[in-house]
Amino acid sequence: MTTLSTSLANEILAFDRLEAADRIAATLKDQVVKTLRRRGIVLGLSGGIDSTVCAALAVRALGPQRVLGIFMPEAHSIDDSLRLGQLAADQLGIPTVLENITPTLEGVGCYQRQNWAIQRVMPQYGEGWRSKIVLPSVVDTDAYRLFTLVAQSPQGEEFRVRLTPTAYLELVAATNFKQRVRKMVEYYHADRLVYAVLGTPNRQEYDQGFFVKNGDGAADVKPIAHLYKTQVYALAEYLGLPKEICSRPPTTDTYSLPQSQEEFYFSLPYALIDQCLWALNHGLSPAETARRTALAEEQVTRVFADIEAKRRTTRYQHHQPLLIDKVREIDA
Amino acid sequence: MNSVEQQIRCFICENFFADDATLTGEVSLTRSGIIDSTGVMEIILFLETKFGISVPDQDAVPENLDSLNNLVRYVTAAQRKAS
């Protein structure tokens, strides 16, 4: 039973770590130096698994002195993010810059606009309160998953309310300032150094549109977008990255209350999403997938439908600006 | 006074650019790409404000909300229950 239930997980992990790391590093170097004609790589360091692995691969490609790591904490960031980011940078030996983006976010009204959006559904929300958006699980029911705001008062009392479409869209739009300001800062340093900006999405995030257009979705190279999340963790271990980072669960580190990627977007632990995504990409039926994961067939069917729905609804995220006529001299 | 069906159809066509001519009662609004997860939220809000019904989370299922026919059936039943 154990063998059966973990067999898909094992199959995803059956890849040559050394070959993968070397191939990514060689391709990355070629892309940055020859295709983009840049002299190094800039990336944001969040202390998470993806940015740490990307930094290590960038070092493998160009050496530590050609990689700049940027810490960009803001008022809602977890303290751990900066500490773990520094831990990774120290181990890799790369130069770093600390850019506190809180004043910029205050300047564009990010926090104020977040509060206004939340007050549409929770008028008492204000100074000293914290919040996050959560979604119910995808596997247990066919019900549409409606976004719920979870808020905590300064006294620690928890409140929950279903978000209206306007409140939800305004809250997400205001929050997206964070990813977009970070990207603006990354490109500032890339421009002054003639470096390329590295984007850090893994396959789940890239495939399922879990990024902000022109925010963390903007980059010159995305070296781990083809890797499943469990493969990224495996590569992190192979590369000898700090254990604390390798064992840290994925977080959005975006809202003022701690929020996992699972409760905000994927609605399922990342390992199971990986297994279902892998199965769907390899043409496995829900029945076959269920035999090789810890999920029942009807649960797999729901996850497959959710993956397809996310692909459909986030296609816009991947679109380049659309032209009326092709400009052949440029776009050939 | 427009019928429930007409009011919902009008909302879907105007709000989501659905084609009135091809929007049959059975068309799946999500699978056909007419609405996404935000669209579901918008439809729920429309039902609650337009028809004065409450749509609890457990009622937010495809059998109630994923087609014109299902929406009309759900609203009619909810109104009957309330009266």
Task: Give an account of the 3D structure.
- Chain A is α/β, with parallel strands linked by helices and 332 residues long.
- Helices cover 52% and strands 9% of the residues of chain A.
- Chain A is built from 16 helices and seven strands.
- In chain A, the strands form two sheets. In chain A, strands 3-2-1-7 form a four-stranded parallel β-sheet, with helices on both faces. In chain A, strands 4-5-6 form a three-stranded antiparallel β-sheet.
- In chain A, strand 5 and strand 6 form a beta hairpin.
- The longest helix of chain A is centred in the middle third of the chain and has 29 residues, at 165-193.
- Chain A is globular and about 55 Å long.
- The model of chain A is unreliable at 1-5 (pLDDT under 50).
- Chain B has 83 residues and is mainly α.
- In chain B, 57% of the residues lie in helices and 0% in strands.
- Chain B has helices at residues 4-16, 37-51, 62-65, 68-82.
- The A-B interface holds A 136, 141-147, 162-165, 168-169, 309, 312-313 and B 30, 33, 36-38, 40-42, 44-45, 57-58, 60-62, 65.
List keywords for this structure.
heterodimer; A: 332 residues; alpha/beta; 4-stranded parallel beta sheet; globular; disordered N terminus; B: 83 residues
Most residues in contact: chain pair: A-B, 17 and 16 residues
Number of strands of chain B: 0
Assess the beta-strand content of chain A as a share of residues.
5-15%
Average pLDDT over all residues of chain B: 94
* Count of discrete alpha- or pi-helical segments spanning 4 or more residues of chain B: 4
Largest sheet geometry of chain B: none
Biggest sheet features of chain A? 4 strands, parallel
Shape of chain A: globular
The secondary-structure element order of chain B is HHHH
- Gap between N and C termini of chain B, in Å? 18 Å
Question: Which word captures the global form of chain B?
Answer: globular
SS class of chain A: alpha/beta
> Span between N and C termini of chain A?
53 Å
Number of strands of chain A: 7
Radius of gyration of chain A: 20 Å
